[in-house]
């Protein structure tokens, strides 16, 4: 598919002022932490932060979100620091974005727009690019202003599928909107094909135990995935290093085999457009038998990040899936006080260092015990002529003991539920007493 869906300005901003807003019901430290995360997002997008500011307001100003005095102040700061963008740590309405851009004559980006920009830069596969494109286009549609008129220029020069000439009385803005709607339809059509392919893949492994890694962005999910699978998927100390889900087999200590999936990281105020656009990818989460919730325990806002992940899981209707909490990055703790506090609240959580390997054997054993209940303990009598059944038990079950009799092998084994029917004819009655 042609790259006609890029909704970023032709000359991306390079120097930005960050604006945080502490509203009446917000705690100051939460606003400061969120602004620090916005700085990370901005730097991940390749934009220099030249200034940060927080405004205290009881409620948002309907015209600018911030106050008129603050708008005037920002105008002077932007000129002095030669900033070419203002980035807000909230989601602005399309009208608020237009009002600020018209008043300050500077590109105005909100938190959602910035997250979409980061996703656009980090999307590596065609599927991820399509998903980000859909989110970008749906976000851009109500926000088209003179700042976005490059869309029609891309469309006009794009060749096939780029749209017709302007109709009678049709403004440039209307032409842009028409073009964006056409692109949305085209991307959705491509995503339907992707979704069908994923459904086939899921059906092919419907009899397997599926575990998905979930967690806040940069919690160390990809590092843990690599440690458990021996793979080498991209694991960077950056926000949203992983956008595409990757699935691999993992053998557990008691001979169970699971399919482990690495998924996109969550974040506070994760744009609804992204949750919707990444529906096909996030179905790896909703169809899992178990979730491994990876938490960066060294992060000062670890508990707030746990809550943010729980909120997204609720939005995905995945909050009723069994979950094991994993406290990662224990090697980066300056003090173990936070670990002890959170362990009193999350008593079942497993402390690990995915980087160093600490606690991995405990995690693997917990997973093995978790799935031991996925089945039953049976005593079987398998004739020698049915040796394939014994092979199947070693491959898919946990063989506790074997005794070789004259005409059959007596086996005690734990067998996953999905294989019970295939061995039922060999089951021996339970021993009395």
What's the gist of this structure?
Helices cover 42% and strands 19% of the residues. It has helices at 28-44, 68-81, 94-104, 111-122, 126-140, 150-157, 172-204, 221-229, 272-277, 279-286, 302-315, 337-345, 360-372, 387-396, 420-423; strands spanning 15-22, 48-56, 85-88, 107-109, 209-215, 246-251, 257-262, 290-296, 323-328, 350-351, 375-383, 398-404, 408-416.
Describe the structure.
By secondary structure, the protein is of the alpha/beta class. 42% of the residues lie in helices and 19% in strands. It has helices at 28-44, 68-81, 94-104, 111-122, 126-140, 150-157, 172-204, 221-229, 272-277, 279-286, 302-315, 337-345, 360-372, 387-396, 420-423; strands at residues 15-22, 48-56, 85-88, 107-109, 209-215, 246-251, 257-262, 290-296, 323-328, 350-351, 375-383, 398-404, 408-416. A six-stranded mixed beta sheet has the order 6-7-5-8-9-10, sandwiched between helices. Strands 2-1-3-4 form a four-stranded parallel beta sheet, sandwiched between helices. The protein starts with 14 loop residues before the first strand and ends in a 10-residue tail after the last helix. The model is unreliable at 1-5 and 147-164 (pLDDT under 50).
Level-1 CATH class name of the largest domain:
Alpha Beta
Could you give the distance between the termini?
69 Å
Structural class: alpha/beta
- Count of individual helical segments: 15
Q: Predict the CATH topology of the largest domain.
A: Rossmann fold
- Element pattern in H and E: EHEHEHEHHHHEHEEHHEHEHEHEHEEH
**CATH architecture descriptor name of the largest domain:** 3-Layer(aba) Sandwich
How would the global form be characterised? elongated
Instruction: Identify low-pLDDT runs.
Output: 1-5, 147-164
The tally of beta strands, per DSSP, is 13
């Amino acid at each position: 598919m042609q790259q006609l869906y890029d909704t970023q300005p032709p000359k991306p901003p390079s120097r930005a002022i960050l604006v945080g807003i502490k509203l009446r019901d917000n705690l100051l430290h939460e606003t400061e932490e969120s602004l620090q995360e916005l700085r990370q997002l901005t730097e991940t997008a390749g934009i220099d932060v030249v200034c940060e500011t927080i405004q205290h307001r009881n409620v948002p100003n309907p015209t600018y979100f911030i106050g008129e005095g603050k708008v005037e102040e920002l105008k002077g700061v932007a000129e002095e620091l030669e900033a070419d963008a203002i980035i807000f740590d909230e989601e602005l309405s399309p009208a608020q974005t237009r009002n600020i851009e018209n008043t300050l004559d500077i590109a105005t980006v909100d938190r959602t727009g910035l997250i979409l920009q980061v996703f656009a830069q980090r999307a590596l596969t065609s599927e991820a690019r399509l998903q980000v494109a859909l989110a970008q286009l749906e976000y851009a549609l109500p926000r088209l202003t003179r700042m976005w008129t490059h869309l029609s220029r891309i469309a006009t020069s794009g060749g096939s599928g780029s749209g017709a000439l302007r109709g009678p009385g049709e403004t440039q803005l209307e032409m842009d909107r028409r073009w964006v709607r056409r692109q949305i339809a085209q991307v959705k059509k491509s995503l339907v094909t992707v979704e069908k392919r994923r459904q086939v893949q899921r059906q092919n492994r419907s009899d397997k135990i599926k575990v998905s890694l979930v967690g806040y962005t940069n919690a160390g999910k990809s590092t843990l995935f690599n440690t458990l699978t021996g793979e080498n998927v991209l694991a960077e100390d950056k926000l949203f290093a992983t956008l595409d889900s990757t699935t691999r087999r993992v053998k557990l200590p008691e001979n169970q085999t699971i399919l482990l999936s690495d998924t996109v990281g969550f974040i506070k105020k994760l744009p609804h457009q992204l949750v919707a656009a990444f529906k096909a990818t996030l179905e790896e989460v909703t169809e899992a038998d178990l979730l491994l919730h990876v938490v960066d325990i060294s992060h000062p806002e670890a508990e707030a990040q746990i809550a943010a992940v729980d909120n997204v899981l609720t939005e995905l209707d995945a909050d009723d899936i069994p979950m094991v909490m994993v406290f990662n990055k224990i090697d980066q703790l300056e003090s173990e006080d936070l670990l002890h506090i959170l362990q009193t609240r999350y008593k079942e959580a497993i402390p690990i260092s995915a980087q160093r390997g600490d606690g991995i054997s405990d995690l693997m054993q917990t997973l093995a015990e978790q799935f031991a209940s996925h089945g039953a303990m049976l005593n079987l009598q398998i004739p020698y002529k049915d040796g394939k059944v014994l092979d199947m038990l070693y491959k898919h079950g946990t063989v506790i003991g074997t005794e070789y009799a004259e005409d059959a092998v007596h086996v005690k084994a734990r067998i996953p539920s999905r294989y019970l029917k295939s061995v039922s004819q060999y089951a021996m009655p339970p021993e009395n007493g």
